[in-house]
Amino acid sequence: MNEFVYNGQASRVVFGVGSLGYLEREIELLSARRALVLSTPEQKAQAQMVADRLGSKAAGVFPKAAMHVPIETAREARDEARRLGADCAVAIGGGSTTGLGKAIAMESGLPILAIPTTYAGSEMTPIYGITEDGLKKTGKDLRVLPRTVIYDPELSVGLPVGLSITSGMNAIAHAAEGLYAQDGNPIMSLMAEEGIRALARALPAIRRRSDDIDARSDALYGAWLCGTVLGNVGMALHHKLCHTLGGSFGLPHAEVHTVVLPQAIRFNADAVPEAMERIERGLGTEGGISAAAGLFDLARMNGAPVSLRDIGMKASDLDRATEIAVSKPYWNPREVDVRARAAIRQLLQDAFEGTRPP
Ligand SMILES: NC(=O)C1=CN([C@@H]2O[C@H](COP(=O)(O)OP(=O)(O)OC[C@H]3O[C@@H](n4cnc5c(N)ncnc54)[C@H](OP(=O)(O)O)[C@@H]3O)[C@@H](O)[C@H]2O)C=CC1
Ligand SMILES: O=C(O)/C=C\C(=O)CC(=O)O
């Protein structure tokens, strides 16, 4: 076994159907007295339900979370938290809402209690992102790691099937890249393989019946594991491409992960055969279908997009996307520099057309 460093990150996870019922207890364990509840505008009713449950321990509801945390929203939320004397933020929703909680915590140190309803995994990471003047800045700060996470599968039943599949693929992407991370370790690899297994089992079942609570539980369990991997080890080419396509070309976050993942995994496959074996074991395709093709099939068979063309990319932007991706690459097991330009351009072409990897 290679040398490794494993850093446990302290967060408390309360998991299970109906676990929202433990909210008051969990707020008390944080020694909080006034929680500001955050959500997107569309999930305001759910946030209000949480605030009603907290009664006098709720400072108010701030239902203005938006994708990629615009700095103006972050400032407004910070002011509101201060004005209301909040000593804790409860974020109910997906990565956008958790991200807003992180923006508050970064400045004020308020503890976050996250209640995820998508599979993006932000609740398990110390990674924050804020967008200012059209540019998204990301970084790591342990203050933004939610102290408590309540995973209640009942709350994700309302997530539309299409979003459930792409969000699940977003989670799988964290695990897949965690399996070949430069700073990877055996514990994260165990979590990554098990996370892929849980999601590969859950997504087809959710497609068949969106209120299948066992499948929703499996998916949330997988999201927890995959998010933990994202929070503990570095990501590589796939995440760089997605951040480029999302950040510079405005493509939707979970969909872009879904489309790019099979192509990025194909690009890296020969450099990291052990990781490929683990992805295949997780997907249940070992000995038959490659990791890249297995991921492509998982998306396509469950009705998710598999081509950049279908999610709004213009063919004329592929060259510029290639330049951005190779100009400041993340570490990757197969080198990505200007000499790899032609191979990255081909990867993006395959993603654009939705070509099934061999
Ligand atoms: N820092 C980190 O570690 C990470 C950050 N992220 C960031 O998080 C964002 C992506 O997260 P993601 O979760 O995909 O995005 P969102 O939080 O924007 O949620 C995605 C979609 O899910 C819908 N949704 C969420 N909950 C429900 C629900 N209960 N019922 C119905 N619909 C629901 C939202 O609808 P509606 O808008 O109507 O509420 C939205 O359209 C990106 O900004 C990404 O960069 C992602 C992963 C990790
Ligand atoms: O961009 C961020 O907010 C931070 C990380 C991610 O979005 C991870 C991902 O690409 O899913």
From TrEMBL:
Residue intervals of the Fe-containing alcohol dehydrogenase-like C-terminal domain: 165-350
InterPro entries from the UniProt entry: ADH_Fe/GldA, ADH_Fe_C, Alcohol_dehydrogenase_Fe, MAR
Residue ranges occupied by any Alcohol dehydrogenase iron-type/glycerol dehydrogenase GldA domain in the UniProt entry: 11-153
Residue stretches in coiled coil: none
Keywords: NAD, Oxidoreductase
Any Pfam family hit: ADH_Fe_C
Superkingdom in the source lineage: Bacteria
Family: Belongs to the iron-containing alcohol dehydrogenase family.
Name of this chain's protein: Alcohol dehydrogenase class IV
